[in-house]
Amino acid sequence: GAVPADEVIRKRLLIDGDGAGDDRRINLLVKSFIKWCNSGSPEEGYTQYQRMLSTLSQCEFSMGKTLLVYDMNLREMENYEKIYKDIENSIAAAHEKISECKKQILQAKRIRKNRQEYDALAKVIQHHPDRHETLKQLEALGKELQNLSHIKENVEDKLELRRKQFHVLLSTIHELQQTLENDEKLSEAEESQETQMETEAKQ
Signal peptide: which range, if any (predicted)? Predict the structure, then answer.
């Protein structure tokens, strides 16, 4: 059956290292060296020598390329680490900013609540007179209270005078009644005496 492409690639990587053909070049270089050692003529030896130089150049080029790729990978790793640290710092700064924004939002809510309470109090205060007007009203009420106190004193004095006058009047009426009773008794006594004298004169 057909061999899957993944299996072919896996075998090539196992045989060829990282896939750059280094193992094949080294094997070729060893074979060229053996042939060069066993060469029978100078021309064949020179040919094998040139092949070895070409293979060495390819190996050196591959090694230089691999070193460049390695250095590039190191720089990329350093760059990625720097980017990672920058991202971590950015995330930390974002968290701090979010926390600060939350504090600002809470403070803004408190300020808004206070302003609403102040507005409500201001509306209530607007329905009441100001301090100067209130002091004028208090002064007017004080004067009115003082005037009422004087009126109360005058009324109490008049009431006391009327009470005394009424008491005098009652005393006078009582004395007058007593006098009238005495006069009536005296009149009755005189009439009784006159009646008795008339009776005695007739006898």
Answer: none
Question: What is the distance between the alpha carbons of residues 134 and 125, in angstroms, rounded to a whole number?
Answer: 12
For residue 39, with 0-12 CB atoms within 10 Å meaning exposed, 13-18 middle and 19 or more buried, which class applies? middle
Q: Assess if residue 34 is contained within a domain.
A: yes
Output the pLDDT for position 106.
93
User: SS3 for 40?
Assistant: coil
Taking the whole predicted model, whether its pTM rises above 0.70 is answered as no
* Position 132 in a domain: no
Calculated CA dihedral for residues 25, 28, 29, 33, nearest 10 degrees: 180
CA pair distance 63, 202, nearest whole angstrom? 195
CB neighbour list of residue 129: distance below 8 Å, 6 or more residues apart:
137
Helix axes 22-37, 5-16, angle to 10 degrees: 50
Please count the structural domains in the chain: 1
Does pLDDT of 15 surpass 60?
A: no
- Residue ranges making up the domain that contains 40: 10-107
Between the two ends of the chain, the Cα-to-Cα distance in Å is 197
Q: Which two tokens mark 178? A: 């007593």
Give domain status of residue 19, yes or no: yes
* pLDDT surpasses 90 at 57: no
